[in-house]
Give the backbone structure.
Amino acid sequence: MDLYEYQGKAYLARFGVPVSPGGVADSGDEVAALAEELGFPVVVKAQVLTGGRGKAGGVKLAGDREEAKRCAEAMLGTDIRGHTVRRVWVEHATDIAREYYASFTLDRSAKAHLAMVSAKGGVEIEQVAEEDPTAIARLHIDPYFGFSEAQAEALVRQAGLDQEARAGAAEVLAKLYRCFVEGDADLVEVNPLVLATDGRVHALDAKVTLDDNAAFRHPEWAEFAGTEELDERERHAKSYGLQYVGLDGFVGIIANGAGLAMSTCDVVNQVGGKPANFLDIGGGASAEVMARALEVISSDKSVRSIFVNIFGGITRGEEVANGIVTALGRVDIKVPMVIRLDGTNAELGRDILRSVESSTVISAPTMMGAARTAVELAGGK
Ligand code: GDP
Ligand code: MN
């Protein structure tokens, strides 16, 4: 789960990472009142799950109440890199001396945590990596031993942080690492980490991705739930507990298993179609789950055909087929549907499907063939 900046900052603050005091609001008047409390100048920041807000007009300094209100009203409701601004964060503005970069993430191939620090902050790190890769100091951390004070100090020195910022930055790094590990994050990124003119080092931005698999030991994460940017289809699917991701194509996809669902998307692309979604219905494929999946997909107006791709393993083909037949009786499907059923007892399953086959409900034995038919029935590209 990706956190908004205001949530990320609250999370970092829990581990002692210094951030500017501020508040979140969704109207110009609230922003004006908050700004008054915080003291001018303030910075008004669009809360959207994307970086590069600064360049896109989503970060503005305001010197008085009227200006803060105007900035907020100009941002609220607008679109920043494809994300609608529903809330803004207001904080007391910092007088910046230098902007740095710091992050902790998981390096799966190295089976270690990876720390990255750079004296070139404020710009996207991908850009720094491309233009001046030596400007990023990296350190692999053995999760068993953790991240020591000496390592933090060496890292800020290696990254070339200004002398007066080093002690403060090393302290922030230690806290960030605690947040990353104890806070069960997959990523904590602070860009920029700033040295203010008063000599303090603190986080001016926060990008935090929590590891959803650790949610069971963080009841406090409930406060972040429901704030994710979901589209209508994803909200619908989520209410049914389905593993669904909305995409922008026109072939609706239902598969069992995440791997097969991804391959199904690939095959649809390969034969010239575009998947409208990723949907993994898991192992069972019961009538109930199948009906819910079909309901979500057929309510998507851009879906022009549906491709159901099921490989029977522990779940046998005839059970899946019975599930599909029952689901078809419950959900009114208006677009053509192609079903590929393979694996355990596939023959038996296909026999059962014969009762529902028609010119718009087609059973196809191979994945590639089924994908082609689904794309054709959708009317091509
Ligand atoms: P991003 O563009 O989405 O990464 O948003 P950031 O929160 O990183 O802000 C972008 C830029 O706005 C920063 O790199 C700073 O240069 C500037 N900025 C943000 N907050 C402040 C502030 O309190 N004071 C000043 N002077 N500049 C700020
Ligand atoms: Mn930033």
About this structure: The first strand starts at residue 22 and ends at 25. The chain has a mean pLDDT of 94.
